[in-house]
């Protein structure tokens, strides 16, 4: 299989070629490994390649399709260093429910992708593995924390890649790299066997995809509770894969945000794309009206600092004990250290008050969906910034410094982590310098099917980003036989 044929397929397409015996699993894996070998020196998005066992069930729906996992503990016996020197050499002790379901579906993991340290920064740069670069312009950022996954999918190395999202870490890299990034409803995809509700309830596992049909199919693969989960989401009447082929939704009421909800302003190039998408929604017959901030952003902003600081400190201490190491500025970046120190100073009452504030925020957001079927926002406030704009190891960084860096990416994404509502970033625009702009749609709890139906319509529209980035496996001459 040559790289041009391989890179033109999504996961569903590759699975069909394997199932019909047009290609073998070995051919698909060899093409993926060649793409990684040749493109990774330019992008630095794959830490290592280490083939995980092949599913023995050749009738599995995605039998033999290659993928990559984020550098988090997901597969038993596989290194999971969380982008940190403190966790260097850490080995995952158990298979996650995520990986069990992916393996049962037939996927083959080929290695690990880069992440920001402890998933904190909204850039994928770290002392441990360096800088991950954007396939559209290698001088630009891929956002974070799942930046390696987004770059790998956008460049055609793999058709899908594991990603996680605690404040926008799926959606922002998807926006910066021009791929599809869904954060499902809280509880849709189990976090087992770890925390029953990851990172205080705001962390979600899913994947980056090339196509909406892959996004829907993977939601079918990964959905469903595990014993002990706090939240169970009702399964849809029909599969998500079939839902995207149902008649398009009619006469929706869509709230559109064309101004920032935070003190950080929205860039003119992103605002332009948001308005274009809003006009297209009107052309589809939907009612689009401006939506003002409907919760106390300042209170939410301060409360999520408390939530993250306490939970990051707990996570760091847990890994440090297992590694026999002591957290310090020698093995933690200054931004991670800032959260770690802040977490020690937060007492139980302050944490409880923050949880109450975030609960009130979630209810405010939920109430908006009594008026709106969907909420349309930018994903990030600006297009991909030049590498070096944000300092991941800012000297003497404080908790406030960390969140000032996060705000331009997470103004519109993090609220839906708190509320638990599903939200998706779609590649619907280009900046003046030719880098992608992602647009976010959010829906009521459990309404992923509605998001996917509308996403499929956009995928067929003139607004969908169709060109490939300059760093892509389809642009390479293949070493493999045709």
Polypeptide structure, described:
With 482 residues, the chain is α/β, with parallel strands linked by helices. It has one domain: Amidase signature (AS) domain (Amidase signature (AS) enzymes, Alpha-Beta Complex), CATH 3.90.1300.10. The chain has helices at 3-7, 11-19, 25-43, 97-104, 147-154, 171-177, 198-201, 212-222, 240-243, 268-283, 297-323, 334-344, 348-368, 399-410, 414-419, 448-459; strands at residues 46-49, 66-70, 108-113, 125-126, 130-131, 160-165, 180-183, 204-209, 253-256, 287-290, 374-378, 423-430, 436-443. An eleven-stranded mixed beta sheet has the order 1-3-2-6-8-7-12-13-11-9-10, with helices on both faces. A two-stranded antiparallel sheet has the order 4-5. A hairpin with a 3-residue loop joins strand 4 (125-126) and strand 5 (130-131). Helix 8 runs antiparallel to helix 16, helix 11 packs across helix 12 (334-344) and helix 11 crosses helix 13. The chain is globular and about 60 Å long.
Could you give the topology of this structure?
Blueprint: H1 3-7, H2 11-19, H3 25-43, E1 46-49, E2 66-70, H4 97-104, E3 108-113, E4 125-126, E5 130-131, H5 147-154, E6 160-165, H6 171-177, E7 180-183, H7 198-201, E8 204-209, H8 212-222, H9 240-243, E9 253-256, H10 268-283, E10 287-290, H11 297-323, H12 334-344, H13 348-368, E11 374-378, H14 399-410, H15 414-419, E12 423-430, E13 436-443, H16 448-459
Parallel strand pairs: 2-3, 2-6, 9-10, 9-11
Antiparallel strand pairs: 1-3, 4-5, 6-8, 7-8, 7-12, 11-13, 12-13
Helix pairs in contact: 5-6, 8-16, 11-12, 11-13
């Amino acid at each position: 299989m040559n790289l041009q044929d391989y890179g033109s397929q999504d996961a569903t397409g590759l699975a069909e070629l394997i199932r019909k015996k047009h290609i073998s699993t070995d051919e698909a894996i060899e093409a993926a490994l060649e793409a990684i070998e040749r493109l990774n020196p330019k992008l630095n998005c794959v830490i290592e390649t280490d083939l995980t066992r092949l599913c023995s069930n050749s009738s599995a729906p995605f039998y033999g399709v290659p993928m990559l996992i984020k550098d988090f503990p997901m597969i038993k016996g596989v290194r999971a260093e969380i982008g940190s020197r403190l966790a260097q050499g850490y080995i995952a002790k158990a298979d996650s429910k995520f990986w069990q379901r992916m393996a049962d579906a037939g996927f083959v993991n080929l290695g690990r992708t880069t992440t920001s340290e402890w998933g904190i920064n909204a850039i994928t740069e770290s002392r441990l593995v360096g800088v991950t670069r954007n396939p559209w312009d290698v001088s630009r950022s891929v956002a974070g924390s799942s930046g390696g996954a987004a770059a790998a999918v956008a460049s055609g190395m793999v058709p899908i890649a594991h990603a996680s999202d605690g404040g926008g870490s799926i959606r922002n890299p998807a926006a910066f790299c021009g791929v599809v990034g869904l954060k499902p409803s809280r509880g849709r995809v189990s976090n087992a066997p770890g925390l029953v509700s990851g990172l205080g309830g705001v962390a979600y596992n899913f994947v980056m995809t090339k196509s909406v049909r892959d996004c829907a199919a993977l939601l079918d693969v990964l959905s469903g509770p595990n014993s002990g989960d706090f939240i169970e989401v009702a399964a849809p009447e029909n599969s998500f894969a079939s839902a995207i082929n149902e008649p398009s939704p009619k006469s929706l009421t869509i709230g559109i945000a064309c101004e920032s909800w935070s003190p950080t302003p929205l860039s003119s190039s992103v605002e332009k794309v948001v308005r274009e998408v809003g006009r297209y929604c009107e052309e589809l017959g939907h009612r689009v009206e401006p939506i003002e901030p409907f919760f106390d952003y300042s209170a939410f902003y301060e409360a999520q600092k408390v939530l993250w600081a306490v939970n990051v400190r707990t996570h760091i201490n847990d890994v440090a004990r297992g590694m026999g190491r002591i957290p310090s500025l020698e093995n933690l970046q200054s931004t991670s250290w800032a959260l770690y120190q802040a977490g020690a100073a937060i007492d139980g009452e302050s944490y409880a008050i923050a949880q109450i504030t975030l609960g009130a925020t979630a209810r405010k957001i939920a109430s908006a969906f009594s008026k709106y079927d969907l909420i349309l926002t930018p994903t990030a406030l600006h297009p991909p910034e030049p590498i070096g704009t944000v300092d991941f190891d800012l000297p003497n960084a404080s908790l406030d410094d960390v969140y000032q860096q996060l705000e331009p990416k997470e103004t519109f994404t993090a609220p839906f982590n708190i509320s638990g509502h599903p939200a998706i970033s779609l590649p619907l625009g280009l900046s003046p310098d030719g880098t992608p702009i992602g647009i976010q749609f959010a829906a009521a709890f459990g309404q992923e099917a509605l998001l996917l139906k509308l996403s499929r319509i956009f995928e067929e529209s003139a607004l969908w980003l169709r060109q490939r980035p300059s760093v892509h496996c389809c642009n390479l001459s293949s070493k493999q036989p045709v």
